Every structure is written in structure tokens, then in C-alpha cells.
Fold each of these.
Amino acid sequence: MLAWGPLIIAATFDQPRFGYYLSVVCAIGAGYLGSRAAGLVDGVAGFLVGDEEESYRIARDTRARYVVTGQAMTSSIFQPILVWANEPTGDYLYRSGGGYGYTRKFYRTTLARLHLGDGADYGVYGERVPSIKHFRLVYESSTTVAGFGDRPIKRVKVFEVVPGAEVTGRAPDGTAAVARVRVRTNRGRTFTYEQVAEAKDGTVSLTLPYPTEGETYPMKATGPYELVVMNASIPLSVSGEDVRTGERINLAYGHAP
């Protein structure tokens, strides 16, 4: 079987706890892949949805630990990925001169948000695409092959699948909370991860994928999160264990609605 795009191969291992959620430019599947075709198509669909929670569900269902994205997935092999996933090309691409441009729907896919945006939020078509909560960048290759705004895009990126630390606090409904942290990659590149949430039913909650201490990968936060809520700026430390286990961190900043 010839397949383009992301593969879920966790189920193909005898020890699925070592599962991966992989992207490849071109994979020639052996017999064990041929018998898992439905699961592989689910893997492709998991990259194309605009709902990160659906991508996370697929990753968890397959016991995946990592997502690997490649630049070719957003360019030369993106159309074959759409064909394999039975998705209409016109939903994601439009004709532009002698080539193609990308639609709003493309920029909201998990694939674009991870590979182009590092899982951080970004603006496109006058809209804000929110940051990712359950996939954190842990490695990128050395070669820069493209650019996205002011971001240099590396050929390959690896993301770990995590529940994320759940940070909660009391606040009046509609109150905005912002958490931001500066991240340095294994190649020395830095970017800002920022997440915004709004209080509902008297509670504001953020799910943070990057630890600020106890990091086991070359990726490092350059300091604690800055949490801005209720006109207060609070430094917030999150451990690697918090991120990996989905630990709940309760905040107290002087307000009880």
C-alpha cells in the first residue's frame, strides 16, 4: 500500500505504550499497515480537523505519544493527503496564478497550527487562530525551508502529546485570563506561546502544555508563565509532571465572586 501523510502506527506495535502518531512524506506499507487502513485514514483526518480536541482524542485512542510534521505535508503532498482523507480540495486550497493559495480552513487545521504556528496562536485573514493545548513542540530539525510571518519554518518538527496542566481560578463571568511564556527550541529559536481563556460559571481555566521546570527535552521555557487576570500579573511555574499528568493547579489572586 502506498500512503501519503500522517500515519498512526501505535496499534501496529506489540507494545502500544510506545506508540507514535507519525507523519511521513511517502510510506510504503508492509502487510501490517495494509490491515490497518481505516486507522491510518483516521490519522490523516486527525491532522485536517479544525477542532484540536478531536485530534487529541484520536491521538489518545491510538495511544500515540508524538506527532511528527514535515514541511512537505503543507506543500507538495498536501493535495494527496486530501485525496487520501477524502476531503474536497476546494475547502483548503484555491487557485492563485499558476499555483495554489490556502483558505481559512487550512490555517485552522491541526496540521497548519502545529507545523506553521508551533502550536502557538497566530493571525490570518484578519482572524486569530487560537493556540494548541495538548501538543507541545519538543524538537525541530536544523534546516529552514520556508517562512510564516516572522517564523522560520523547519523541515521537520516533533510534538509530544500531553494532557497539559489545568490552571483554574475564580473570576466573574466574561473575565479574560492570559498566560504567556517564552520558549527556546533545541535549535536556539525562540517564540512566545500565549493562551487566552474567558471565565464561565465563575471559573477561568487554561490548559498549559509547556513546563517551566523539570523539562526533559532540549526545548526549554526561558522563565515562568506570566499569567494576567483581574488586573494582576502573576508568575506561574508549571512542572513537567504537571504537564504530563494533567495536574490541576488552583490559583488564588484575591477574588471570590
Note: Residues 163-257 form a domain with the Immunoglobulin-like fold (CATH 2.60.40.3390).
Amino acid sequence: MPSPPHAISRTIPLGDSQAHETGPGGARRPRRTVVPPNPVAPADPVVPEPAATPPSGGPEAQDGEAAKTRREAVRIRQLARLGALFAGFAHEIKNPLSTIGLNLQLVKEDLGEPDSPRDQRIVRRLNVVESEVRRLQGILEQFLGYVRVPELHTRRMHLDSLLRELVEFVQPEMRERGVPVRFLGDGADREVELDADQFRAVIVNLLRNAMDACQDGGEVIVTTRTQGGVAGAHEAIVQVIDTGSGMTPEVREKAFTPYFSTKKQGTGLGLPTARRIVEQHGGSIQLDSEPGRGTAFTIRLPLAGASALPPRTGASADAADEENDG
């Protein structure tokens, strides 16, 4: 992977007492301040370090953590009850939708090949209704997939092998869209406990989002590394990076909010579902993005035999939690 971009030096206006410094021979010259590069660069995406876990405090801090854990457990139970309620409601809508779709097909079969302009108009309108029924069925399927919390069937897997497989799977589709994609592993033979089907869905969703962001140019890169060094390694870091259009701060803050989408046909459930699956695996997902420079999704997963990671941090996660609590 290319080396990170060098820091940029530029002159920053200051007060008269700070704006200059004395050079060789006593000459006065403008003071220069070193400014770090942006976190995501199109030519050389930066791999951000995950947030550090704060050290544990005394008894009062531990009591506060225990209360927070209890509140979180109550919130999860409430969401589970709401999820069961909404899932039942969605099933009640899904059944008549299937009946409507079936009857539309029967009506079209009865009409046969339309000969008159009137019959052609009828068939066109039936096709529109049938298309909308299919779209609603798709939305319901995604909704049910989000509100259900399926039991994970995990097994120990080689993470790099799985990711390399997934990159090869999406390559033909991306090549057709003119978006290059590559996998950059660090050669480590790391193992994680994964539900392969669920985790595949997460990565494919992120790859397709990245592909959509690169329609006007850019590439997609998947990277892996291990956090904590060789002796003390405890988590695997997976990044899905694109050098495409990026997100505005407003979009970035709402990215994990259910039903928020910037796509015309989007349901807004892809990223919330991805986050839920990653957290079910004891991991976390973080988003970094900048308009015109690209986006990086960082997934942290415990290595096989390690404990679950600390709760996620970051503005995107906090915003989504506030939305769900409301």
C-alpha cells in the first residue's frame, strides 16, 4: 500500500507578535505551521486508528458503567419487543401484497398479447402496478431482516481468505461499471469467529455502496490488519475504502439511521443492518468520509479466543442511538 501523504506546510495569519520568527542573521520571516493531511485522500487512503478504550476508574466509575449496562439491557429488550410487533405487522402486509401480485399476473395472462391501443395502455399500467408491488415486497423483506435478530451460527474462519473471495465475487460487476477494486492484506493468518453468511452480506453491502460512490471516478480498496502487535494482538481491523464522491457531514451523521437514504430506490436499512450484524459478532463499525475525497468504513472484530470489543464510539453511532431511542 502506498506510503501516507506528507504533512503540508502553509503560512497561517497570526497576531504581529506571533506571525514572524527570527531566521539566520537576525532576519525576520513569516512563521510556518505544519498542518496534517486530510484523513481520506483519493490517491492514498489513510487507515484511521480505532478509538482507544478509556482506562477503568475507581468504584464510582464502575458503578456508573454498571448502571449504563443495565440501561442498555433495558433498551435492547424494549427494541426486541418493538421488533417483534413490527415484524408481525409487516407479515400482515406481506400476505395481501403477494395476493395482489399473483392476481396481476393472472389478469395479464387473460389479456394476452395487447392488440388495440386501449389494451396496450392497460398492460402498461398493470406493469407499473406489478413493479410497485415487487418494490414494496423488497422493502418489507429488508425491514424484516432488520427487525429480526437472527441467531448467529459462527465458526472459526480465516478472515483474509473470506475477504479475498468476496472481492473476487464483486469484481465482474465492478469492472462492468468501470470501478477497479483490490484487496490488500498484510499477510497475517488471522482467525475470527464469524457467521459467514451474515458477514458476507455486510461486506457486499459496503462494496456496492463504495461502487455507487465511484461512478464519476475512483477505486475501491479492502484492507486488513491486526491491532495490538504480534504478542498482544486482540482484534482484526477490516476497512472498505473508496476514493469516490464522499459524504457531507450531514449525510455522514445520519448514515446509520434507519430509513435514511440518499439513493432514489434505497430503503435506508443497509447500513443499520450491517452495524447490527457487526455488533452481534462483538465488534464495531466506524465511518470516516469527506466530500470529494472518499469514504472509509472501519470494522473491528475480536480475534478468535479474544473478548468482545468495548462499545463503539463516534458521532455516527451516537446519532443513530439517539434516533433509535426517540
Note: Residues 84-147 form one domain.
